[in-house]
Design a protein that fits this description.
This protein has ten helices and ten strands. With about 375 residues, it is α+β, with helices and mostly antiparallel strands. It has two domains: about 5-210; about 220-350, no CATH class. Strands 3-4-5-6-7-8-9-10 form an eight-stranded antiparallel beta barrel. Strands 1-2 form a two-stranded antiparallel ribbon. Strand 9 (about 330-340) and strand 10 form a beta hairpin. The chain starts with a helix and ends in a 21-residue tail after the last strand.
Length: about 375
Amino acid sequence: MTDGQLTWIVARAAGLLAYLLVTASVVLGLVLHHRWRSTTWPRFVTNELHRTVSLLALVALAGHGLALLLDPYLAPTISELLLPGTISYRPVWVAAGIVGGDLLVGLWLSQYLRARIGYRAWARLHLLTYAAWVLVLVHGLAAGSDTPTVWALVLYGGSVALVGGLAVARILDTQPEAARLFGLAAAGLFVAAVTHWAIEGPLAPDWSARAGSSPARGRTALTVSSAGGSTSVSASPVPPGFGTGFTTVFVGEIGVERIAGGRALVVQGRFGGPSAGSLDLLVGSTRNPADASRLVLRLDGGAACTGIVTVLDEATIVGHCRSDDGSLVGVQLRVTGFDGERLTGRLVAGPFGQGGDGPSAGPPGSGPSAAG
């Protein structure tokens, strides 16, 4: 696992943990408002739990920011992580997360001003917690690379349903009736608006390009090259696009397809990270995989390249493809898990080695083969 891959995984995990903790804090706040009590769970315990969860959310947010600061792909400055709209990667949606985080920090500090401003003013100020939660939700959906996955949609959908249900219960306690009707209508419109926006935005195939997913400066390119059957990866500064190499986690399905003169191994799947996209591979059952192979690499931003597979060994598939702008891209898929149908692996793509031999068309090993 490369440093870039590790920091991206940590950043995603810390961001999702922060969102869950912020959601838990909002839920506990609504529970406290309804004065729901338990004989085994005194109110003061709930108050302390609420404060502790809120603090842990801020710690997770700090971890999220620190991991992004160390990420070699984004390579942001401290000011870009603190000032909304200054980062080049999905600037609007990252700004939503920054503003939401700033609000949460301010609300946490406001507890020390409660005695000065009075409880009523502090309670009204605390309503901004809902705005902070919405901003963090929008940030996670729009800037997170895991949004299209089933588990992420279940997580976001479940949290919205939970917070929404408790918010509706709070609205029903509101007087007079006109205020209740207005609140219920606003809640319904909010859920409908977020759902429509998510479908047309973060869940759309071209969202990566529309959101502005390429950093302004290419920091790290991963160059795949091979000599004598030995594959290597090196790093060098290059412009964004296919020129900006990347390492990410690939998840796909594997199968067998009949072709002229035999059968072929078919791999189809997706990868996430800043350069999210899809990879389709077809590897023939002949001795030299380049004789009957196809490689198609697509980025959600619209870029694509087509080529061939040149190496198929026990746990690695190597190939190269020609992009739309004519540049040659090296591709390496190292298999890390296989259960008969589902395949996971480490995908590396980047500029084809200049001055080297490139991925060789050496003989396949004893690993996955179409002959089965």
